[in-house]
Every structure is written in C-alpha cells, then in structure tokens.
Amino acid sequence: MNNLDPIQIDRVIEMAWEDRTPFEAIKFQFGLNEKEIITLMRREMKSKSFAMWRKRVQGRKTKHLKLRDDTVNRFKCTRQRTTGNKISKRN
After folding, report:
1. Number of domains in the chain
2. Domain hosting residue 45, numbered range
3. Helices 6-17 & 23-30, crossing angle to 10 degrees?
4. How does pLDDT run across 35-48, given as a tens digit for each residue?
5. In a domain, 48, yes or no
6. What residues pair up with 33 in beta bridges, in sequence order?
7. Model-level pTM?
C-alpha cells in the first residue's frame, strides 16, 4: 500500500474524516482507492473509532463525486493557505 510516511497517513485519515472531501481527492493526492483507504483506516484506528467512521461514511453522498449534489462546491480547509496546497502550522 503505497508506503506512506506517518505524516501522509495522518493526512489521509484527516481527509477521510472530512465530510466534503471525496475519496477521489484522496486517490488523486495519495494514490489510494476507497478499498485501500478503508484498509488503512481499519489498521490505524481503534476498532470503535473505525466502526464509527464506517457508519458515518457509508452512504454519504459527499464522499463520492458521482453521488454529489451539484450544490456541493469544492471544500477548502480553514488551515489551507490561499496559495499552494500546504497546511499552516497548528497553534
């Protein structure tokens, strides 16, 4: 599975938890398909947290571009800078 470093794994988990970040965005950035994301989440999270995430994500239209309503626009994280795609330092 793509040999991600710990920082990348943390970012994948963060993106997977975000409601408006589709699986396709994670695939584009990290090369992981939905099945691989689920495997990573199962491996990296506590079982109860994983179960809560799976319940939350299943059937959520915003996690799949093809199922999204046209009114859902691109999401930009509040910590993302206006230029580039870097996360600013957390306080």
Report:
1. 1
2. 6-67
3. 160
4. 999 999 999 999 99
5. yes
6. none
7. 0.66
